[in-house]
């Protein structure tokens, strides 16, 4: 995603201005502005023409004008705002006869709802890139009636260009919103123009409200995160010569430190302050940067404290007619009551509040609610029906504004049940009352008692009470290897924080990003960053410090420019926004990137593994497709004694030492804390030495089968992350990348992916405390996704798996997948895993463009792999978006892939009643079954009965022989003469139209046919419609090696042919390779 952050417009001091004295006349008639890389920038005053000026006209104002420069233009209620304007000039529609609501609105004079009727500007432009361009304008509004204009193109005024709107006041501000009937303050992303053909176009701007002040226009193809900074990007001129800029002047500064008194509960301002002068937040005039940060911190704390909540479970139930449902909702039992009333005393300061009732949507009926204060109704509410059995959501809430409530007042909530069908009744559930101060006096009163309230409430989240350190000096250091595809790290010495802080929370309330742009103009990446404590937490176990970090994996050689963004505000890291932190925001630099020096297994020699719209991922560097084979088990891989603050919650699932693999650790391999981590690092070395290229793990399993892995600073606190533990995880994952191991992030598991226990996403359940936002895309889930991406997304080969045996609703899955896709700058593939019998239910609604998913992670019986892989390869292709389909868990759940014969005295055979299977059957019908169906590979699951099973495994050698079989298959499909991406499963050519396990065919018709025979026998191949001669050779899936000749040397096309017998061991599996000569 391309992001735009620019410095101030370079001021061109050209001699000999000969511009028109008429401030309404054009000064850039011959200038054509050019779009490059999806961005077009235009200075507003550089219009080519102006028309329809009989009643209103655009007047140019500059930094060189006198105070009465526009006296002849008619009424202008505003002083000059040229200071701060790009290029030292801007345009204003004059006269301005309606500055507020009290002044008369006169359509056709001071208001023009129809575009193109008054004060029409035109600009000559040239677009290289067709597409949808979102329109941003830099405007200055001082009242409620000077904040809207219209945009048009090539003589037309499309609906999407009308009613540009801003609500920002008393400053130059970038905005791109459209006013609608429902939302008068404007809706993002609705204001755009579609450029259908490259070439010259005429951009038009016309009046909607007089008094409008316009400084600059930017059109960009980027939809998200596109707001320009400062004065925005410099215009590019294609033809003509742009007029010289006027002198740029900063807005007038004042020496007054503060124009109003600080609230008493803030205490005293900093005793020692810097000597810089800048506007202070909150309307406190001008002052130092130190004072600005102190004010902003207090404002943020006040905002965080001002919302008061009385949860339903804080109301007494005795005699109320309610019962407490799931420990959190008031509810009525329809068999005993039809209505109920609960009451409690208001224990907060006197004031004026906006009061919100959060009801619970139900599918049985539309319950009704009444809220009262001292028996006086403040409002009633009829709750909409829900599609779910019950759910909390904003649409089930109602707010009554400006309600006076005093301390000690009796607050009551009454509700009544209802029925949609006359049979089943709702339970009139409700969750809470929220009181938000509605004026400054109430805000101050509530903020003053907030510390006491927080302490009394004993919040579950961590509250840091440790000593505070000094903030950093704002310097930026670059570390890592500045080479293509390698990890390059920027570390900012920024604001002091502790991982346990809550006001602000460094993980949620401070957004730290870096925008990297190649010197050629593209690509550009916005990479999320994170709080890194002291910068060495993996070794020091530090929880606090001033280090903020971004990891980047550049995909091009050459110079990369970077710019840091740091903003602060409630939830700023989760949804963007926040107020820029001046001392740290905007830091710039450049990194010179050389070519990678890696080769062999190391992914840094091949590039990032991308989803390219086909059934195989491809390396961006080498262009080669990727087929995987590796370990799905243990899911508890990260439950390791050498990781900080890692504990086991189940006696049957202890932490791992990975001692069996300490022998595989090599000198020079990474570790932490003077040698910790050798066992797990050695385990990855072993997997790589066996020729495998993937492993899997759960980063979060609290409440699940293992209950011993979480990234948080404490198990129950999902909004504070453990800096040292995650640094240590990062060492392991980086080593995996260097060893050529694909990282399979299974982000959650069935037991805690939502608020519903068990297999069924539609069951009610009793709630799951460990789930992230109950399955919804809320702050916990957003933060979790962002942290995984920020810390580990630089790794080149990985996927984000929504969850193991996932049972979230379709919408919840779509929302999570979209957030991952939006936040991940590299667009790593997103996949999903579910129960074998729920694949149709889960996968079908997600196919094609219905979701951001790029693949399926299949779980099914070991002997169902082939036909189910083919089913989803075909279904996804037919939906228009081919999925990457892997088999990542093999049933039965009890055994999965058995251990080798002889390991811990086992014979390697799994017996199921009268049937049985062993690792040879896994090789034939799981490994080759997936690959011959066009699948992307396998990961092996170890069951829960086997030695070294899925929960306790810490010795990968338990499946040593199976790993050999995997390596052999990978080596074969990695051959340069196998056109993998051009081949499809064509079992019908070998007499297997049902795609059972008798024989498989994978082919590029007319050129290459692979025929797999689980039990070697004479096979026939249908070459009807083909001509010429084909060689027949055989490959041994058990031993690998070169292709060998069997009983038949070659066959001719034109009909069904016999391939003969393989060369030896005819009772075993063989692969026939039939190639056009």
For the largest beta sheet, what order do the strands appear in spatially? 51-50-49-48-47-44-43-54
Percentage beta strand: 25-35%
First-to-last CA distance: 46 Å
Top-tier CATH class of the largest domain: Alpha Beta
What portion of residues is helical?
10-25%
* Secondary-structure content class: alpha+beta
CATH architectural type of the largest domain: Alpha-Beta Barrel
Name the CATH superfamily assignment of the largest domain.
Glycosidases
The CATH topology label of the largest domain is: TIM Barrel
**Largest β sheet strand count, sense and barrel closure:** 8 strands, parallel
Report the principal-axis shape.
globular
Query: Mean pLDDT, as a whole number?
Result: 90
By DSSP, the count of extended strands is 62
Count of alpha/pi helices? 12
Rg over C-alpha atoms, rounded to the nearest angstrom? 33 Å
Poorly predicted tracts of residues: 1-20, 253-259, 451-466, 760-766
Count of individual domains: 6
Protein name: DUF5060 domain-containing protein
Domain Apiosidase-like catalytic: 782-940
Domain Gylcosyl hydrolase 115 C-terminal: 104-233
Signal peptide: 1-20
Describe this structure in words.
- This protein is α+β, with helices and mostly antiparallel strands.
- The chain has six domains: 32-239, Jelly Rolls (Sandwich), CATH 2.60.120; 264-305, no CATH class; 308-457, Galactose-binding domain-like (Jelly Rolls, Sandwich), CATH 2.60.120; 476-597, Immunoglobulins (Immunoglobulin-like, Sandwich), CATH 2.60.40; 628-857 and 872-896 and 932-973, TIM Barrel (Alpha-Beta Barrel), CATH 3.20.20; 986-1076.
- Helix content is 13%, strand content 29%.
- It contains twelve helices and 62 strands.
- It has an eight-stranded parallel beta sheet with strand order 51-50-49-48-47-44-43-54.
- The two termini are 46 Å apart.
């Amino acid at each position: 995603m391309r992001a735009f952050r620019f410095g101030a417009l370079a001021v061109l001091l050209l001699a000999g201005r000969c511009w028109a004295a008429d401030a309404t006349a054009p000064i850039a008639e011959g200038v054509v502005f050019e779009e490059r890389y999806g961005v077009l920038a235009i200075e507003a005053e550089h219009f080519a023409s102006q028309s329809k000026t009989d009643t209103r006209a655009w007047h140019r104002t500059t930094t060189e004008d006198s105070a009465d420069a526009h006296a002849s233009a008619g009424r202008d209620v505003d002083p000059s705002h040229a200071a701060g304007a790009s290029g030292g000039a801007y345009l204003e529609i004059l006269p301005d006869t309606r500055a507020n609501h009290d002044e008369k609105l006169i359509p056709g004079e001071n208001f023009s709802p129809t575009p193109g009727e008054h004060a029409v500007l035109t600009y000559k432009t040239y677009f290289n890139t067709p597409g949808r361009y979102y329109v941003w304008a830099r405007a200055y509004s001082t009242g409620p009636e000077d904040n809207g204009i219209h945009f048009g193109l090539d003589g037309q005024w499309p609906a999407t260009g009308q009613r540009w709107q801003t609500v920002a006041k008393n400053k130059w501000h970038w905005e791109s919103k459209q006013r609608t009937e429902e939302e008068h303050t404007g809706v993002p992303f609705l204001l755009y123009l579609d450029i259908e053909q490259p070439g010259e176009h005429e951009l038009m701007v016309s009046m909607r409200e007089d008094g409008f002040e316009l400084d600059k226009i930017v059109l960009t193809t980027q939809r998200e995160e596109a707001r320009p900074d400062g004065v925005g990007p410099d215009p590019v001129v294609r033809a003509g010569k742009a007029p010289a800029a006027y002198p740029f002047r900063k807005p007038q500064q004042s020496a007054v430190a503060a124009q109003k008194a600080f609230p008493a509960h803030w205490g005293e301002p900093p005793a020692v302050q810097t000597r810089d002068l800048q506007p202070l937040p909150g309307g406190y005039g001008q002052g130092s940067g130190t004072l600005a940060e102190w004010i902003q911190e207090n404002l943020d704390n006040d905002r965080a404290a001002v919302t008061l909540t009385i949860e339903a479970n804080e109301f007494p139930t005795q005699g109320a007619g309610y019962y407490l449902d799931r420990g959190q909702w008031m509810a009525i039992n329809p068999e005993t009551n039809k209505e109920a009333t609960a009451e409690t005393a208001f224990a907060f300061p006197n004031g004026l509040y906006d009061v919100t009732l959060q009801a619970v949507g139900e599918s049985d009926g539309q319950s009704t609610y009444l809220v009262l204060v001292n028996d006086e109704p403040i409002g009633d509410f009829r709750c909409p029906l829900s599609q779910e059995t019950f759910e909390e959501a904003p649409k089930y809430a109602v707010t009554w504004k400006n309600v006076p409530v005093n301390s000690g007042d009796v607050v009551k909530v009454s509700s009544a049940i209802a029925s949609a069908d006359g049979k089943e009744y709702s339970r009139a559930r409700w969750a809470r009352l929220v009181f938000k101060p509605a004026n400054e006096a109430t805000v101050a009163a509530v903020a003053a008692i907030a510390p006491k309230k927080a302490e009394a409430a004993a919040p579950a989240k961590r509250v840091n009470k440790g000593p505070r350190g000094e903030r950093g000096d704002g310097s930026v250091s670059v570390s890592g290897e500045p080479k293509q595809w390698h990890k390059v790290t920027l570390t900012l010495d920024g604001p002091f924080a502790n991982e346990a802080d809550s006001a602000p929370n460094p993980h949620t309330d401070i957004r730290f990003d870096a925008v990297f742009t190649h010197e050629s103009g593209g690509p550009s990446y916005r990479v999320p960053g994170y709080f890194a404590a002291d910068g060495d937490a993996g070794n020091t176990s530090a929880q606090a410090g001033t280090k903020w970090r971004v990891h980047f994996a550049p995909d091009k050689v050459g110079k990369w420019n970077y710019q840091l963004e740091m903003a602060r505000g409630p939830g700023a890291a989760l949804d963007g926004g926040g107020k820029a932190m001046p001392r740290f925001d905007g830091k710039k630099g450049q990194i010179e990137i050389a070519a990678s020096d890696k080769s062999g297994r190391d992914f840094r020699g091949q590039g990032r593994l991308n989803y390219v719209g086909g059934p195989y991922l491809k390396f961006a560097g080498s262009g080669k497709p990727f087929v995987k084979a590796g370990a799905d088990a243990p899911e508890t891989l990260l439950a390791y004694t050498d990781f900080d603050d890692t504990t086991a919650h189940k006696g049957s699932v202890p932490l791992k030492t990975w001692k069996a693999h300490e022998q595989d650790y090599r000198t020079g391999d990474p570790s932490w804390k003077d040698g910790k981590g050798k066992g797990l690092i050695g385990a990855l070395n072993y997997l790589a030495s066996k020729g495998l290229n993937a492993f899997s793990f759960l980063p979060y399993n609290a409440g699940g089968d293992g209950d011993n892995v979480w990234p948080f600073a404490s198990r129950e606190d999902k909004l504070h992350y453990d800096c040292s533990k995650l640094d240590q995880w990062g060492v392991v994952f980086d080593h995996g990348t260097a060893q050529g191991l694909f990282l399979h992030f299974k982000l959650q598991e069935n037991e805690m992916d939502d608020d519903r226990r068990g297999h069924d996403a539609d069951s009610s359940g009793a709630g799951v405390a460990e789930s992230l936002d109950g399955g919804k895309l809320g702050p916990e889930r957003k933060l979790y996704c962002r942290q995984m991406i920020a810390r580990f997304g630089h790794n080149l080969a990985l996927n984000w798996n929504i969850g193991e045996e996932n049972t979230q609703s379709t919408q919840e899955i779509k929302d999570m997948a979209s957030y991952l896709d939006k936040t991940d700058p590299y667009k790593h593939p997103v996949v999903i895993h579910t129960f074998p019998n729920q694949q149709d239910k889960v996968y079908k609604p997600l196919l094609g463009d219905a979701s951001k998913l790029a693949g399926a992670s299949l779980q099914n019986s070991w002997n169902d792999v082939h036909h189910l892989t083919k089913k989803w390869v075909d279904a996804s292709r037919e939906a228009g978006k081919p999925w990457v389909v892997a088999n990542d868990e093999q049933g039965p759940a009890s055994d999965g892939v058995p251990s080798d014969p002889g390991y811990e005295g086992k014979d390697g055979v799994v017996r199921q009643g009268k049937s049985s299977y062993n690792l040879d059957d896994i090789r034939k019908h799981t490994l080759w079954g997936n690959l011959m169906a066009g699948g992307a590979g396998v990961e092996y699951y170890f069951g829960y009965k086997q030695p070294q099973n899925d929960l306790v495994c810490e010795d990968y050698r338990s499946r040593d022989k199976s790993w050999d079989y995997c390596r052999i298959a990978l080596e074969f499909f990695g051959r340069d003469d196998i056109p993998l991406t051009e081949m499809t499963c064509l079992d019908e050519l070998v007499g297997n139209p049902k795609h059972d396990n008798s024989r498989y065919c994978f082919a590029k018709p007319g050129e290459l046919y692979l025929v797999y025979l689980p039990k070697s026998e004479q096979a026939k191949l249908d070459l009807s419609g083909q001509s010429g001669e084909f060689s027949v050779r055989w490959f041994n899936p058990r031993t690998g090696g070169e292709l060998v000749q069997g009983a038949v040397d070659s066959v001719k096309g034109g009909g069904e042919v016999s391939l003969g017998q393989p060369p030896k061991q005819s009772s075993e599996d063989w692969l026939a390779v039939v190639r056009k000569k």
